[in-house]
Design a protein that fits this description.
Layout lengths: L2 H15 L8 E2 L12 H13 L3 E6 L2 E6 L4 H12 L5
Antiparallel strand pairs: 1-3, 2-3
Helix pairs in contact: 1-2, 1-3
Length: 90
């Protein structure tokens, strides 16, 4: 398993655990919190790829970019978390 894939799964898990689906969103800049400083660049790359994969929604606001999990892809997101981290999300 590559480190980018693992960071993607950890990022999805973090957002799912905090229930950031659809209308509930968080600042893009806050995504790196909880990760080691040497991983911050990788977290940004992972988040950008998750947006391209349509697993994360972008929500531009007047105070910066926010993101949330795509609730229409919930099954795919939960499966990815389980496969890579072994954690089941309800």
């Amino acid at each position: 398993m590559n480190s980018l894939g693992l960071v993607k799964a950890r990022l999805l898990f973090k957002l799912a655990r905090r229930r950031k689906w659809g209308g509930s969103h968080t600042a893009f800049d806050n995504l790196k919190k909880g990760f080691k400083s040497r991983e911050h660049e990788l977290v940004q790359k992972a988040a950008e790829e998750l947006i391209k994969e349509n697993l994360l929604f972008r929500k531009p606001t007047g105070y910066g970019l926010h993101v949330s999990l795509n609730h229409e892809k919930a099954a795919e997101i939960k499966q990815k978390i389980f496969e890579l981290l072994g954690v089941k999300i309800e």
